[in-house]
Design a protein that fits this description.
Layout lengths: L25 H11 L5 E2 L14 H8 L15 H13 L10 E4 L1 H13 L5 E6 L3 H9 L3 E8 L5 E2 L1 H6 L5 E7 L11 H14 L2 E5 L16 H4 L4 E6 L12 E6 L2 H17 L11 H6 L5 H4 L4 H15 L3 E2 L8 E2 L2 E2 L9 H12 L1 E2 L1 E2 L11 E4 L4 H27 L1
Helix pairs in contact: 1-13, 4-5, 4-9, 12-14
Length: 418
């Protein structure tokens, strides 16, 4: 045996090299270094309402405080009975078939439940159809559970909506599920009913599980209408995800849920697998679960923020106006969620590298954005910002963005003349 070398590196899982999560990655680490030097940054990389002065609604806070003496013990691995009853009643009211507390899973945020669901589903080498752009956790969780993400396009020229024919063309004998993110992160697209019906029909033809990320279901602008997928799926197995983090501005509480709908016999083994994996982690955070009933059946506090005059609406308006006024930017206006996904156009787009631009904005302009390639797209001319700052701050951010892009465009023009 060779002598112990204290500098010998611990090997890590090789599949981690395939995982991309720039939302909290290299640029965010550099941002922390700059803050350590005393720099004041505007960080638009994460949809984290509490970081921008939002608070969870008072009636949700009170629901936890009034029951704090009941939060010490573990609860059932699928969640508090009263929380699951409230979630089931909410889904039943909007038409989810077979909605019952027994088919509800409460987790430490939707992120944990995505991982559990894919671990319950996938054998090595099996495939999941994932949108491009996607929320990168979906790709990462598929990879780390030994699956393979296969990307279907959500084309900008089609308002970032998917093409069902292209989705169907990607189905293989190894395909197990279709992921839908609606309203969409990062694009803000909101999927119409007829499109969802066509995707559901594909899943029915090939007996695929629908994994439906609906965490932004009530964050909608102008005349957008949200259509849940489970009522369209009927007996087809469908797992619908929701939570407190976005609509109810309570990210740090780590409360998410997943509702399994469809034929009970077809869903039985998958249900038991999720229950087993939930039991292995004992249970989800208990205090936050006491807020679920009030969140789903109490006062609506998100709609006023999304209407004209509301904070989210006005910040979205500032984003749209800034992109419309810029010769360097183009935007598909978000219909929902908390993000914009602008594209760099014109001379500034020549040889553009989204990661290099994001680093430049951080180093030169004290602004942290997310490169578009972080969302598993093949092009490098987009970036994502969150709509959570107040409108004047977002206008200032886009003044800085335009300043950098104008310098870049001028440099490209001079190079062309030379």
């Amino acid at each position: 045996m060779s002598p112990y070398n204290p500098r010998h590196k611990i090997a890590t899982r090789t599949r981690l090299t395939e995982v991309r999560y720039e939302i909290r990655g290299e640029l965010a680490r550099r941002a922390r270094e700059l803050e350590g030097q005393g720099r004041q940054l505007i960080k638009l990389n994460i949809g984290n309402p509490g970081a921008f002065g939002f608070r969870a609604p008072e009636h949700l806070q009170r629901a936890i405080a009034d029951r704090i003496e009941r939060t010490d013990p573990y609860t059932h691995q699928q969640g508090l009975p009263e929380a699951r009853e409230a979630i089931a009643a909410f889904h039943k009211a909007r038409g989810t078939p077979n909605a019952s507390p027994e088919r509800v899973f409460v987790g430490n945020g939707v992120s944990e439940l995505i991982d559990i669901a894919l671990r319950a589903l996938l054998n090595p080498g099996e495939e999941v159809l994932v949108p491009s752009p996607d929320y990168p956790l979906w790709s990462a969780a598929t990879i780390l559970n030994d699956g393979r993400p296969v990307y279907y396009k959500c084309d900008r020229d089609n308002g970032f909506l998917p093409d069902p024919d292209q989705i169907e063309s990607l189905v293989s004998s190894r395909t197990r599920a279709i992921v839908l993110i609606n309203p969409n992160n990062p694009t803000g697209a909101n999927y119409p009913r007829d499109l969802l019906e066509r995707i559901v029909a594909i899943a029915q033809r090939y007996r695929l599980l629908l994994l439906v990320d609906e965490i932004y279901d009530h964050i909608l602008y102008d005349d957008a209408v949200f259509q849940p997928v489970a009522p369209l799926a009927g007996d087809l197995p469908c797992l619908s995800f929701g939570g407190l983090s976005k609509v109810h501005r309570a990210c740090g509480w780590r409360v998410g849920w997943a509702v399994l709908s469809g034929d009970p016999v077809a869903c039985g083994d998958f249900h038991h697998a999720m229950d087993l994996l939930g039991a292995l982690r004992l249970c989800a955070n208990v205090p936050g679960q006491f807020a679920i009933e009030q969140a789903l059946h109490g006062a609506d506090t998100i709609t006023p923020l999304c209407r004209p005059g509301g904070r989210l609406y006005e910040t979205r308006r500032a984003l749209v106006e800034a992109c419309d006024a810029s010769p360097h930017l183009s935007l598909v206006a978000p219909a929902g969620a908390l993000y914009g996904f602008p594209r760099v156009v014109g001379p500034a787009a020549q040889g553009f590298d989204d990661h290099g631009f994001a680093l430049q904005m951080l180093e030169e302009e004290d602004v942290l954005i997310v490169p578009g390639t972080s969302f598993n797209v093949p092009y490098r001319d987009h970036f994502r910002v969150t709509l959570l700052p107040e409108a004047p701050m977002l206008r200032e951010v886009f003044t800085r963005i335009d300043r950098v892009l104008a310098r870049r465009a001028e440099g490209e023009r001079r190079s062309a003349v030379a």
